[in-house]
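fold-stage: in
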Amino acid sequence: MKKYIIFKNPYILIEDLRRKYKPFFKEYLKDKPTLNLNSYPLNCPFVPGTLKYNKNKTRQGVCEVCYEKFNDYFQHINTKEHRDFAVDDRNFHELDLFIASLNNNAGTFSNYSDVVYDDKCLTNLLPDVDGFINEYLNKK
């Protein structure tokens, strides 16, 4: 006696016409399966495509500007304390000094007109390079 199943709900049945492989079936208990043609490549076309956006999700952390803990980032950056701290130039005095020192040093290194380059700078760095090239060319 053959075993068979009577489907009561919507189903998908895949059978081999040559009957080499046994049938594969999937019965859906909730909804009738629909084919989602707008699905992304390599995604299941039977699953509805949903994009999750966490745009308004609250982020907790510590502010890198005013060093205060916060539970909601967007609420924190709109507070008066944060804005006052960010506008006050005294809070960024050390950073301004650091940037100014970088700008001063960059001015000393930007003029390379007095530097004399050696024709054989690569061979000065790697003295055996000429011998290596000659050996390589002689092998061919």
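fold-stage: in (second)
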Amino acid sequence: MIELSQRQYLALRLLREYQKPIKGQQFSQLLNVSPRTLRYEVSAINRIAGQPIILSNKEGYVLNEDPAVLQQIQDCRVDDDRQLEKQLILALLECKEASIYDLTQKLYVSESTIYSLVKRMMPKFHSFSLSLQRRGEWLSCQGKETDKRRMLSHFFFAEANALATTLVNFDGYFSPFGLAELAQIIHETLDELDVQIDDIYIKNIIICIAVCVQRMINGYPSDGSETEADALPISTSPLLTRFVDTICGRLQEQLELTFTEADKATILAFITGSFPEENEQILQNERFRGQIRKLLDKTFRHFQLELDYSAVFDNFVLHVHFLLLRCRHQNFFHNDFATSLRTSHPFIYDVAVYLAYQLEKEFQAAIPGDEIGLIAIYLGSIATYVPTYDLPRVICICPQYHELRKLMVQQLTEKLSCTLDIVKIVSSLSEITDQDHADFYLSTVKTENSLTDLIPISPILSPLEIHRIEKKNLEFMKAQKRRKLRQNLLRFFDDQLFFCNHGLTTEVEILTFFDQLLQQRGVIDDQFMDSVRQRESLSSTAFFNRFAVPHSLEKDALLTKVVYYYSDEPIRWYDSRVNLVLLILSRSDDEQASKIYNLIFDILIDESCYKKMILCRSRQELMDFLEANSN
């Protein structure tokens, strides 16, 4: 079952009724949205479905006619509860008490539905240190005003990003001003102060200030004691203080509001960590630098990586400083880095998740997924490619003439898109001994001995020669991939750890089943599954609404294994829907353990391979499939 928003469901319905392509402009008008929002909604529908349901071509938008896709469309329904939940959150935050009877009439639902929604929403309120209380027919939200503003800011921020717009006018909430109007004031003030703010933080600043101002207009003043009581570090940037003072002064004049020092302090706390400040004092904090270095070293040891991070260390120290400021104040931003890096560089992203976990433990701060995406970018700058397989060993045949050898190595390094391990450079074949091993050879001279793995090249590489080398490298990688799969996956998968259609359709049921099974077999202890759940809480291991690859944060299993579970019925894996779950168990002293994630991901990321893989109904069928499809 696929759950869609009302707008997404309407888009599918329109395409089904028209039964012919709908031009983008006409489609936008029918849905009453902008072309940009239409593109986002189409992308969201395809992402939720895990495959392209809606296609676009020069004639317009049209439904995918594949029978399996059409059946999936039949199973779509509107997620009404999500819309009701949003309305209820606003209603409870925007009044001191709300009558259950009034809410039933306003939202057109029964009392039992209200109670069910309130129960489901409790954890969201608790995450902002708020609680929902019932007194007779009355419901109320209890907690600090700062925390209510924080929850509202998160709410509107999520809504703005869900609609894929730079700014959204929430006409039903913000009045007598709009977000676009406030954004103009903020940008003008930044220009006056000659301050450059990263784009990813701007929307956060606009929405936070808007919520604070609207709460003041609605009669909910800041509590002056809250900021002091929280005793959290706040940015010391003089520029930030001037910025807040200037913004408050302009809004005070325009909206006839009075901003107290408590109001300004609340706004400052909400946007701290998003503003530039003097970095020298931060970089001179040797204790803090030592903590960051210790965590980086521990993370790289955990994944058996040897990376030189000295060139980016100072910048990373600054990044963590501002990250902790944002996290301790529950400040936020949104970017697509986390989503794209999870799928394009899953291993690097997994390293970033582990580093975030270490930062959380060291500094007692919850780190959200968007922050993990930025950490992954830093790691990517250190190691843009973490190889799953060994590099091809190459022997070069090149005369020792002036700088010819140096020139050849330089060209092989700079012009190739792949990386080679040049183990030896010789002048002729006679210098190659029986002890020398190479996967292939490159020669700038004509050789009498016809080696099957020899590629003739000129001293100055031509595009055709580069193509030949890269093609040979690709052949080597494919052959090695088949060999690795045979060597490793045969021992990773187990007949007794292979399950299909056992009637388990939630992450709770599946993880509980795995826990009991693996403890009985003595493969894990009673703490292992807690680590798996904690890893999921940091960032979901579900991809494309097709598969999930859960694993623990620590390599604390007694054996390196993969538990296979497939269900024809979709599995509710936290906020995703998947059909396949592969639980990875890693033993700390297993050198191959760090590569399992990429090995498995290489197969699952290929949609055609995935569709064939889930047809396997035994471990032997799976092994036959993996070997046949690893080329």
